[in-house]
Design a protein that fits this description.
The protein has helices spanning 16-19, 31-54, 61-64, 67-85, 90-107, 111-130, 137-180, 185-208, 223-235, 240-266, 268-295, 315-329, 343-350, 352-369, 393-409, 437-453; strands spanning 333-340, 375-378, 383-389, 412-413, 419-420, 424-430, 459-461. The protein has 462 residues and is of the alpha+beta class. The strands form two sheets. The protein has a five-stranded mixed beta sheet with strand order 2-3-1-6-7, sandwiched between helices. The protein has a two-stranded antiparallel ribbon with strand order 4-5. The longest helix is centred in the middle third of the chain and has 44 residues, at 137-180.
């Protein structure tokens, strides 16, 4: 083919350029092009206006006054503006907005400040668009409508993610509150098993008594059902067993209880199979309930059952609180990330029971090396996170080296009577003002990986 390639504007049927090729194409041909051009040109100005305003804001300044946050957010806000104005992968755009909303919730920025900031950007952009005298009223309206749709969509996605994250955070805070108040998980378990059995027995007795079976209380409305919805949802949030128990209870209320009513009317021959089906469901719930409480066996003391270190579930509540205190009091705060070197070799060579014993003894070493005011978490399989309160980098490095040396020097006793020596790598990061606790956790994790790359059995500072 020797014909020259058509410009993009002439491709397809019915396009303006295809109908009138002799008419010059304007430099900006759509609301999308105009919006993208204006935002790109004004991005730096918008970022400056945003921070000038919010650094003076009585609420927002607490989140924006630190230089590190300011520099990071300036770059991020500019990128967000450019992203907002261009056409791209809509799903990727949505994912980015959700991520931003989750970060806002984690840092605990009030959602009204986010919406206020979006309103400031919207009004400033509309002013800039008005200053472009070349726009006819219809084009101006189209661009403003597109701008509003984009901002509203982004705020909707952020707000939903914010609420979801904030709700989970509130549940974790409540769980930590219950732990701090010394709730007895063993007593809770036995109380709910008794409540379940009491409901089950009341149904069976109702079948053989004078009481009308139709008046039997649904299990969803029983003491056990109320506990499962309102308390267990906090204690065991995100646990699949919760959903399975709810499904089983729904089956009991909608299928089995009506069958029991029919069985009582039909006579004893029909009653036995109906009761057997009910007892089978009750047994399923009891097993699932046992699994739930087993999964948080250390929750009574807020600790991992194997190592007796703190349960990672409470890490957001504790670190979030300590970060806030460090900001308020201008006090140091340091995080250690500790990983047992070549731990997989222990499991492969001596078995998982040996690995568990090693984890327990290493945890004891770490706990012995820190103060009662510090926090030690089981962070992962063979990883521990140590939060050293009011501890500057120099002092934290000394503690880290003391832990590392103690682990290296200790002869660990295995179940078969053999002894084993292990080493550990440690990453250290100090709070430098960023309000998101994950910032310092990531920094300590990166320092840990650097320690491993440099040969293991060493401490590296972020």
């Amino acid at each position: 083919m020797s014909a020259s390639k058509k410009p993009d504007s002439q491709k397809g049927d019915g396009g303006p350029a295809a109908q009138a090729p002799d008419v010059p194409r304007p430099s900006v041909s759509s609301a999308q092009d105009i919006l993208q051009a204006v935002v790109t040109e004004a991005a730096d100005e918008l970022v400056r206006i945003f921070y000038d305003r919010f650094l003076q804001h009585p609420e927002a300044s607490a989140f924006l006054s630190h230089a590190v946050v300011h520099e990071r957010l300036s770059t991020s806000l500019r990128a967000w503006l450019i992203d907002l104005a261009r056409i791209g992968d809509t799903e990727s755009f949505a994912d980015r907005q959700r991520h931003i909303g989750e970060v806002h919730a984690r840092v605990r920025i009030p959602i009204h400040l986010v919406l206020e900031g979006a309103g400031l950007i919207r009004s400033r952009l509309i002013t800039l668009l008005k200053d472009r005298a070349s726009f006819d009223p219809t084009t101006f309206a189209d661009v403003v409508l597109l701008l509003s749709q984009r901002i509203d969509h982004a705020m909707s996605l952020m707000s939903r993610a914010y609420v979801t994250r904030a709700t989970k955070g509130a549940q974790a805070d409540e769980a930590f509150r219950l732990f701090a108040l010394g709730q007895d998980i063993g007593l809770e378990r036995e109380s709910q098993r008794a409540a379940l059995m009491e409901w089950s027995q009341s149904v069976v007795f109702g079948l053989f008594g004078e009481e009308n079976a139709r008046r039997q209380q649904p299990i969803m409305n029983s003491s056990f059902g109320l506990w499962l919805r309102h308390r267990a949802g906090v204690m065991f949030q995100g646990t699949p067993a919760i959903d399975r128990i709810n499904e089983t209870m729904l089956h009991i209320d909608t299928v089995l209880l009506p069958k029991l009513v029919e069985a009582k009317a039909a006579g004893p021959a029909e009653t036995a199979p109906a009761i057997e089906a009910l007892q089978s469901c009750i047994k399923t719930i009891k097993l699932l309930l046992a699994d739930l409480f087993q999964s948080v066996a250390g929750l009574e003391n807020g600790r991992d059952p194997l190592t007796r270190t703190l349960n990672r579930r409470f890490l957001p509540s504790i670190l979030g609180r300590e970060i806030a205190m460090a900001q308020k009091n201008n006090s140091p705060f340091t995080v250690l990330m500790i990983d047992i070197d070549h731990f997989k070799r222990i499991n492969d060579g001596w078995g998982h029971s040996a690995g568990d014993v090693v984890l327990r003894q290493v945890a004891e070493i770490i706990l012995d090396a820190v103060r009662l005011s510090d926090f030690v978490f089981r962070y992962g399989g063979e990883e521990f996170l140590v939060a050293l309160v009011e501890t500057a980098p120099e002092g934290a490095h000394q503690i880290a080296e003391r832990i590392r040396s103690a682990i290296m020097d200790r002869s660990l006793l295995l179940p078969n009577g053999e002894t084993l020596h292990v080493t550990a790598s440690i990453g250290l990061a100090t709070f430098e003002g960023h309000p998101d606790f994950e910032f310092v956790v990531r920094a300590s994790d990166q320092a840990l990986y650097r320690a491993k790359r440099l040969g293991r059995n060493r401490t590296e500072m972020a």
